[in-house]
Amino acid sequence: MTIDELAIDSSLVQGNKSISDFHNVLDKAYWHRIQGWIRKEKEKVLLSSSPTLSALEEDEETELAKYKENKKPKLVILSRGGSRAIIDQHLLVHLAEKIGFKVKVLKLDRTTELAKIYQVLNSTDAMVGVHGAAMTHFLFMRPSSVLIQIIPLGTDWAAETYYGVPSRKFGLKYIGYKILPKESSLYNKYNNDDPILNDPNSINANGWQFTKKIYLDGQNVKLDLE
């Protein structure tokens, strides 16, 4: 039985199960398949390797490079298509790599196998994404990892309620980044004094259909990365 969003009231569940127990269930469900993929990759490497001296020297260099690469903190960027996409995503990737992250851009569709998503997110140190349903995948992350949610105009309440609060309860280090009006694609459509830009709450008060049309379906993000 649940209470609030993506949370479990342990007192109402037999054995006082919590959201962490749910994560353990996911772990057991997916790791068998993931281990199978890992074994296949190792088999491919062994079959394609050559026992020559030069190959062994190359292997040592490759292993050293892999070791250095694996020492970098991992960052997953959830890539959206359509609305609420990060227009300058390539610049975000470049900046993150420059800082020292090993970056993985994760683009999801309806055919993406959940075990593959779990494999990526359960091994990452941080995930960043724009507010939307795909952020529920924070449940695949390890507790103490960092979740960064980019919050478009007009989505403050939903972002905090649906993902901010639950992710903290799950044990993640949550950071919400509220974009400035100039970082929204709406900035080029409306005047600076338009309430759509400077008073989203007044627009949302008109009803869900306005929120959905303007802020969820009609907005993209261009981050100020300078």
From TrEMBL:
GO terms for molecular function: pentosyltransferase activity. The keyword Glycosyltransferase applies. InterPro entries: Glyco_transf_61_cat, Glycosyltransferase_61. Keywords: Glycoprotein, Glycosyltransferase, Transferase. Residues 68-148 form the Glycosyltransferase 61 catalytic domain. It is a single-pass type II membrane protein. Pfam families: Glyco_transf_61. It comes from the Eukaryota. It is found in: Golgi apparatus membrane. GO terms for cellular component: Golgi membrane. This is Glycosyltransferase 61 catalytic domain-containing protein. The lineage of its organism: Eukaryota, Viridiplantae, Streptophyta, Embryophyta, Tracheophyta.
